[in-house]
Amino acid sequence: MGAVYRDRRTAGAALADQLRAYAGRPDVVVLGLVRGGVPVAAEVAERLGVALDVLVVRKLGVPWAPEVAFGALGPHGVRVLNDSIAEKLEPEEIAEVTQREEAELRRREDRYRAGRPSLNLTGRTAVLVDDGLATGATARAAALVAKRMGAARVVLAAPVGSVEACEGLTTVVDEVVCPVHPADFGAVSRFYRDFHQVTDAEVGAVLTALG
C-alpha cells in the first residue's frame, strides 16, 4: 500500500469523518500529541467544532531499547510506570532516563503553555490524536496520563496504524479510531506524501490561532 494521505491536514479531515459522533459536544477536547499529532488534531477539532489543545507526553524508554516504554511522564508531575518492565531496570537507569525526559517535558510545556491556562481534563472526553500508530507506545503512555489527569473517557484516534498497535490499545482506552490499519504496516511515513518533521514553530502557530 502506498501513500494514503497528502499530508497531516488531509489525514485529519479523513479522521474527523470517523469521529462525527463527538461533533459539537462541549465536554469533548481534542488533544494533539506533540508534535506530529498537532496538525492532525487541529483539522479534527475544527471540523468537529470542539475544543483543541495539546498533550505533552514523554515516553520513558528502556536504555538499550528506547522504543520499549517502561513508563511515561505527563503534565502536573504525572508519572506512570509499567511495573512489569520497570522492575527489570536498575534504579539508577530509571532515574537517568526520567531526569532527561523530565527536562524535555518541562521545555516543551514551558514553550507550548506560555501564557495559556493549565490543561484540565477532569470529567471530560479526551480525544487523543496522533499522526500514526507504529508500536502504539506513545499513544498508550498518553492514554494513561490522560486518565491520571481525570479524563472521564479516553478515545485514541489516528489516521493510520499497525494492526498490533490498534488492537493493543483497546485495553487502555475506551475507543480506538483508526480508519487505515494494513497488515503490512512498515512505518507511518509511507502512508503520507508529505511527512516532514513538525517543528516547535508549527505547534506554536496552531496554539496562537486558538487565542
From TrEMBL:
Per the record, the coiled-coil ranges are none
Gene3D superfamilies in the cross-refs: 3.40.50.2020, PRTase-like
Under the heading InterPro entries, the entry gives:
PRTase-like, PRTase_dom
Domain of life of the source = Bacteria
As given in the record, the signal peptide range reads none
Quote any Pfam family the record assigns. Answer: Pribosyltran
Residues covered by the Phosphoribosyltransferase domain: 12-160
The protein's name is: Phosphoribosyltransferase domain-containing protein
Which source organism?
Phytohabitans rumicis
The beginning of the lineage is: Bacteria, Bacillati, Actinomycetota, Actinomycetes, Micromonosporales
